[in-house]
Design goal:
There is one protein chain. With 408 residues, the protein is an alpha/beta fold. The chain has 13 helices and 18 strands. The chain is globular and about 65 Å long.
């Protein structure tokens, strides 16, 4: 089947601002982009923005309704599942779990059981559909193991997605050292735990030539390490979530467990450093960190609550705030949300260009709505942005040229 969309504002590679035009798909790939006229059976975008589907790099659960609402067409699933994605059959099953209306790209577990001590069958998991390898929620403490892991990933041309907090420093901490943690009497750890972990893995990447993606970099010191590594030509990328761009550790006041995240919220200085890193290109990816939690995980004392937030539905709307604030252009935003994640995963998607997968979303950037935790479509509505008014709403989602969502 063919799809033709006209009368829209296109987000095109290399363009900062949307340009008027349309797009056509032949089967599941894009066949033409630009000035498309005199074609029957077209979809009228009515001036909406036509953009590549969002590729959410590093989710912990698959929530199709939430992903569709947020304009996410591809989700890179973290290996922290039950059981972990440390075996080819589990990876293969996860890759099929989104069909037919969502692409799921599983990250194979770096070590068996994600225990950090015994390497998993990386090559077999790649054959089974793993688009990258992940260390999960934890940092691998054994530097020798991490070096061997990077060597294998480099040989297989697979990106290694890592969590960056030195566990020897973080221990059982639930917050970042600072005035807020002290006032609340919470176990805390220095922000430098992240920088130390990032610095070690950068040096191992320098030794091995591996492609390393730091899933979340949230501190000024760690971002400086990434910035220098990039200037040295290393294959280093990093990401962040809207929570660490728009919230500081003040948000955990009154023991708000919806703001209990991993890594924890940082100081205002670190938050501003993250915004600057998005603006100057140090940060490559903005992802939701989608980790829905029910009342049994969140309605607990702060130290006992599980970390994580449901972020898929609000990812686009919150990120559009960066455009309105002049931090990034609209084109740069979709590099962060779509094009760069596609490159890291090695998939032919993430941009509106000929012969690329026809994963397309239509959205109105100014449509207002309000984030409500009790109205979320995810398994759990645990969001620190509960009650926040936002702008930007997806109206239509196409996966491989086929409509999979229509806002009613």
């Amino acid at each position: 089947m063919n799809l033709t969309i006209t009368n829209g504002q296109l987000i095109l590679p290399g363009q900062d601002a949307p340009v008027s035009g349309g797009i056509q798909a032949d089967g599941d790939t894009i066949s033409a982009v630009g000035d498309i006229t005199d074609i029957k059976d077209t979809v009228d975008a009515k001036g909406a923005i036509i953009a590549p589907g969002i590729i959410d790099l590093g989710v912990f659960a698959i929530d199709k309704p939430a992903f569709h609402f947020g304009g996410i067409t591809r989700a890179a699933l973290m290996p922290d599942q039950s059981p972990p994605l440390d075996y080819p059959a589990r990876v293969r099953f996860a890759a099929y779990s989104g069909k037919p209306d969502l692409w799921v790209h599983p990250l194979g577990a770096a070590t068996i059981g994600l225990n950090g001590s015994e390497m998993a069958e990386i090559a077999l998991m790649q054959d089974a559909g793993a688009k990258a390898i992940g260390t999960g929620r934890t940092w691998i403490t054994d530097s020798g193991m991490m070096r061997r892991l990077m060597q294998y990933c480099a040989a297989l041309n697979l990106a290694l997605v890592v969590h960056s907090e030195d566990s020897g420093l973080t221990g059982n901490a639930v917050a970042t050292d600072g005035e807020m943690a002290t006032r609340l009497g919470l176990a805390s750890a220095p922000a430098e735990a992240e920088a130390i972990a990032v610095a070690r893995d950068i040096e191992l990447a320098r030794m091995t030539g591996a492609k390393v993606h730091f899933r979340q970099v949230t501190t000024k010191a760690a971002l400086e390490h990434v910035r220098r590594a990039k200037s040295d030509g290393l294959a280093i990328t990093c990401g962040v979530t809207p929570a660490h761009l728009f919230l500081s550790d003040i948000a955990i006041g009154n023991f708000r467990t919806f703001a209990r995240l991993s890594p924890p919220l940082r100081s205002e200085t670190d938050r501003q450093a993250c915004l600057a890193a998005v603006a100057d290109g140090t940060i490559d990816v903005i992802s939701s960190g989608h980790d829905p939690r029910g009342a049994e995980d969140k309605r607990l004392p702060f130290a006992d609550a599980a970390p994580g937030m449901a972020g898929a539905e609000s990812l686009l709307a919150l990120s559009l705030g960066l455009v309105r604030d002049g931090c990034v252009s609209m084109g740069r935003l979709f590099d962060l949300l779509s094009a760069n994640p596609a490159k890291i995963l090695g998939v032919s998607a993430g941009s509106l260009a000929k012969d690329i997968a026809a994963d397309i979303i239509l959205f109105n950037a100014d449509d207002p709505w309000q984030i409500h935790s009790d109205k979320m479509l995810a398994h759990g509505g645990n969001t620190p942005f509960d009650g926040m008014p936002v702008q930007g709403k997806v109206t239509t989602v196409y996966k491989g040229g086929q409509q999979v969502y229509q806002d009613n």
